[in-house]
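Recap for those who missed Tuesday's class. We walked through two folding examples back to back. For each one, the amino acid string is listed first and its predicted structure tokens come directly after. Nothing is annotated here on purpose, so try labeling regions yourself before you check the end of the notes.
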Amino acid sequence: QVQLVESGGDLVQPGGSLKLSCVASGFPFRGSYMSWVRQAPEKEIEWVASVYTDNWATRYADSVLGRFTASRDNAKNTLTLQMRDLSAWDTAVYYCARGIEPPWNTRGQGTQVTVSS
């Protein structure tokens, strides 16, 4: 059974930082491309970043490039997203997902990130 469990979401002030984690199980994580996606209220799911099977290959959406860093630890089946310089536009539920393209059906329950003063 595939499981993706995100954690680390919180309320943070504009300009702040946050680190999200996702623990995966039930599938061969080491050989799987993984992504972070997010969904703001009343908006569609937006791709944020993808990490290929090793940390040498990552891709980011233009909206987070230079502020977010995605990485993975294959020994721990863990995906992380380090976020800095957060703004209200980053407020969303963040999901880790298996794969690198929509429809992002294999994803966790999400973790809420709220950026507000």
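Example two. Treat it independently of the first, because the proteins are unrelated.
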Amino acid sequence: VQLVESGGGLVQSGASLRLSCVASGFTSDYYAIGWFRQAPGKGREGVSCITVQEGVTRYADSVKGRFTISREHAKNTVYLQMNSLKPEDTAVYYCTCDTTYGSQYWGQGTQVTVSS
């Protein structure tokens, strides 16, 4: 499994960004794909995830109503649309994949910086 993230950058508070995660094939072994983030000096935080087959989504309370996760099977891609960004959203965002056989894979991460 390979996960490649893109779409991070430096934006001002209130702006939007869309992160993309391209997976090396949406197979029946993939259960869910999600996003974690890690801010400087803090632990990793689960942001959002989506089940590959059913499209069931979950969000952290801190991003509900601002972030939207979606998937596009044809492009083997999961997106994280981030609106109304805040300085506290600044972090490295990692794409993750959970398989039906209990393994978890991580991408290399993409930096999101929100200035006030």
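Answers for example two:
The chain is about 0% helix and 55% strand.
The two ends are 37 Å apart (CA to CA).
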